[in-house]
Amino acid sequence: MNPSICSDIKTSYGIVCRAITPINGGWMNQLWRADTDHGELLIKQFSLKRYTKAKLADIESALQRQMALKKDGIPCPHIYLCGHSAIRFLNDTTAYMVMDFQEGRNKSFASITLSQMESLGDVCARMHRSFSRLPVRDVKGFPIDSRAFLSGLWENYHTRTQALSPDDPPAYRQALLTQEPILSQLTDTFFERFPKGIAHEDFTFDNILFHENGVSCILDFDRNQYSFVWHDIGRALLCFALHEGNLRRDYVLAFLNGYNRHLPLSRRDLADALRISWCIEILWWIQPDYFTMEPCKATRFRDEILWLTKHWEELDFLLP
């Protein structure tokens, strides 16, 4: 860790850092676990190559909403403020934040249990309920124009198909061209039926910690914004219920049971949650580079979108 950050934490927060250990992850951001006189903390330095000042302002707004959820009982890290801000700027090259370090373990589709899956549904619903209590007018992404959203999907498709070349991976070409039959079905009315509101928008296995029987903490609220709320649900089902090409019905049902403790959600809604996840993420994961790289998180997400493309018409029948 840059010594100036450690010194500033003492000066600005009154916290003395002792042992400091780097943590992997963060995608260009830097993370450290710090043993301090305030307990175990996580220090996150933001990459100013990845984020502009305007983007960091959006993240500050998202972190303020995280703090509101924390007050409402949602299991997420406590953030330490400097003045009224979560993000502390030392200068034009250094921006960081301080939060509690959270205990727990990440799980995958291969290791999550049914009780943990039910707890995930429970926490997801409580998070959505808390988000629904917050004002949305100044939140990034508000409002959503269904016609513009659909137009964007078609624009992405046409731009990519026109740019196809013989050097592109054949699997990428096939993945791109098989989008058209689905896009041709979509209408403005299709998107109007989905609930809109503030969503986590990065509800993946990397950002959820579990204890033995359930969720211990939700992490990384940096991307929370106004969106299609059920995207969080679809993303969770893809991460934890899709295993070896099969959507495990007992895990889907466990999630549904947990969610329904707090908010209504039907089995058809689950199919629609998967469909809206396809509509949002098709732009992200069907990229030429993701068809040539070694297996990683991005290729897992790519394969999930390919699975949704293949099973689009069957989703209502695949769910319990």
Description:
It is a single chain. This protein is an alpha+beta fold. Helices cover 45% and strands 16% of the residues. The protein contains 12 helices and 12 strands. The chain has helices at 3-13, 53-71, 114-132, 146-162, 170-177, 180-183, 188-192, 230-240, 249-259, 267-285, 297-311, 315-318, and strands spanning 17-23, 30-36, 39-45, 79-80, 88-89, 95-100, 196-199, 208-210, 215-218, 225-228, 242-243, 246-247. Strands 1, 2, 3, 4, 5 and 6 form a 6-stranded antiparallel β-sheet that branches. Strand 8 (208-210) and strand 9 (215-218) form a beta hairpin. Helix 8 (230-240) crosses helix 10 (267-285). The longest helix is centred in the N-terminal third of the chain and has 19 residues, at 53-71. The relative contact order is 0.12. The model has no long low-confidence stretch (mean pLDDT 95).
Which regions are unreliable across 5 or more consecutive residues at pLDDT < 50?
none
The helix fraction, in percent, is 40-55%
What is the number of E strands? 12
- What would you call the structural class? alpha+beta
Share in β-strands: 15-25%
> Would you tell me the overall average pLDDT?
95
Distance between the termini: 49 Å
List the total number of helices: 12
What letter string, H or E per element, gives the SSE order?
HEEEHEEEHHHHHEEEEHEEHHHH
Shape: globular
Cα radius of gyration in angstroms: 21 Å
Strand count, sense and barrel status of the largest sheet are: 6 strands, antiparallel
**What multimeric state do the chains show?**
single chain
